[in-house]
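If your schedule permits, I should be very grateful for your opinion on a structural question. Please examine both parts with care and let me know of anything in them that strikes you as inconsistent. The record follows directly beneath this note:
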Amino acid sequence: MHSLQYTDMSIKTSQFLLRLTGTWMNESNTEESRRRFAMTYTIVVHIFALYLSSTDMYYTWGDLNRCCYAMSNVLCTSLSLFKTVTVRMRYTVLNDIIKLAQQNFWHVKYDHEDQILLRKCREFCNLWTICICCIAQVASAFYIIVPIYANIGGNKSERTHPVKIWLDLPLNETPYYEIVFATQILTLQHIGATYICHDNLLCVLNMHVTYQFRMMQRKLSNLWQGSDKETNSIDHTNNCYTALKECIRQHQMLIEFCEKVKYVYMLPILGDVVIFSILMCLNTYEIVVAEVAILTRVISICHIAGNFSYIFIFTYVCHNLIEESANIGMATYSGWWEVLPMTESGRNLRKDVRMIIMKSLRPCYLSAGGFFPVSLETSTALMSSTLSYFTLMRESSMRSSNE
């Protein structure tokens, strides 16, 4: 059944990002030491970034425009650290998820029609990975371009960093300025990788299991081929029952996989749902209302584009998971099982068909903290709450300006 290891760009990128942040599973003691070092470095980097952004927000509290910018940085860093810590707390289950995917999704020999479905899944995952990595890199690049542009033609004593450091130290003088600038760039790049690594893996896993449900629907539809011609064949009934038991085992494996993914990622998804709405509100305020530099607006545009893209694609994938897992019952019911003879295998087959249909009535889904399932309706609710928050902020800003 197993063949050469299957991989593609999205899986390799997910593996690289998770290794970089210390979350990918390890196969030796040496790799475990590297993982612990990477995880420690990730936490230290986030604490350092939170210190810089929090002090910046504290000292700019009276200026709403600059405070919104600093608050956005604090929320992004906090969300990245929160997702890393919560996933790390369930690291063992994450390893089980990756092993299940390797054994049942990626390292399996498929027939021609399943390969077509797998190719579509791979194209979607690759496109998603390219988009999210490009948006993250563009946002990081503008964090670097903004201070460089501001320093052109200015006095060396007034040079700025990507994030201002509120310390009474000669940090604008050479070589301290260059050292601090390089340190902040490395910190920014690592936070960007941490910010997208868990979301990228989650969408890749979610898309693969969705297409596994589609493959199972095709298998169930083809299970009864020849039943209209061999309705009285005991051997044919036995063969159908044997094939159905294999489908049942696959269905149970997919349900177990979805439950493990939901268990690991329910808190990160809840963090995304709660924080993204506030983030997009702050970014919209900076783009539309705040009097900031053009390049700072570009950073906000990159933020809101990345968050909106992730919300739409992720809720779309989650919605597909709900639909495809529910369609298993329809694919089972629409077969020719009712014309098979009432032998012992026929009776057992009918009983198992009823069980599959009952199982599919409660489709697989991902939840936000266990409070509600994530679907396309979640994205519309987030957009609605973002507009409500933005309207409230704009009215408050206009009222303060008039006073």
The first helix runs from residue 9 to 21. The chain is about 75% helix and 0% strand. The radius of gyration is 26 Å. The mean pLDDT is 82.
